[in-house]
Design brief:
heterodimer; A: 114 residues; mainly beta; seven-stranded mixed sheet; four-stranded antiparallel sheet; 11 strands; B: 111 residues; five-stranded antiparallel sheet; globular
């Protein structure tokens, strides 16, 4: 069974640009979450999607958005990039996103904003 | 609010036992997870505790005390491949399905 796949693996952008990251969850998983990982803050929750609906949102500005498609694949978008957005963006999937389910993480997209 | 604390770094030698502590403060505790993350790789699930006590899984064990807001991950018979970051994460009813992570403990195992 294939794991969680994230593309691209690396991205370099400049301030003010926008970026779209993609995540394909494990087959059959309907919940997809996104996390930002930085050395200073660790992993921080961005949002969670289930059946194409945003079910939960973390404390990030509106420049960060996402969506989920009918096949459970998800994308996240960051507009008007800032230097502080440089981070590893991790996607995680689970079957139903219920509280006792473990998350399966992808290897992430490393975003560098210059 | 929520707060999770764990040591930043730990070192140990091959064959030894190491205990990584995690303390947390949440208003609606709803489970605690431990993940392992090797540099440049995805975090992988190690253990889940929701009730007090010890959960053992091979060389790895995890303990939870809800009254103390405390957990530890115990790694026995350390191997070089155990050098990684260990992430403590909790679920809080107020945060719904989100996992709230500590900043991670980087463990270095030497021979």
């Amino acid at each position: 069974k294939a794991g969680v796949t994230q593309t691209p693996r690396y991205l370099i952008k400049t301030r003010g640009q926008q970026v779209t990251l993609s995540c394909s969850p494990i087959s059959g998983h309907r919940s997809v979450s996104w996390y930002q990982q930085t050395p200073g803050q660790g992993l921080q929750f961005l949002f969670e999607y289930f059946s194409e609906t945003q079910r939960n949102k973390g404390n990030f500005p509106g420049r960060f958005s996402g969506r989920q498609f009918s096949n459970s694949r998800s994308e996240m978008n960051v507009s008007t990039l800032e230097l502080g957005d440089s981070a590893l963006y991790l996607c995680a999937s689970s079957l139903r996103g219920i509280t006792n389910e473990k998350l399966f993480f992808g290897s992430g997209t490393q975003l560098s904003v210059l | 609010g929520q707060n999770i604390d764990q040591p930043t770094e730990m070192t140990a030698t091959e064959g030894a036992i190491v205990q990584i502590n995690c303390t947390y403060q949440t208003s609606g505790f709803n489970g605690l997870f431990w993940y392992q993350q090797h540099a440049g790789e995805a975090p992988t699930f190690l253990s889940y505790n929701v009730l007090d006590g010890l959960e053992e899984k091979g060389r790895f064990s995890s303990f939870l005390s809800r009254s103390k807001g405390y957990s530890y991950l115990l790694l026995k018979e350390l191997q070089m491949k155990d050098s990684a970051s260990y992430l403590c994460a909790v679920r809080d009813r107020q945060a719904g399905t989100a996992l709230i992570f500590g900043k991670g403990t980087t463990l270095s195992v030497s021979s």
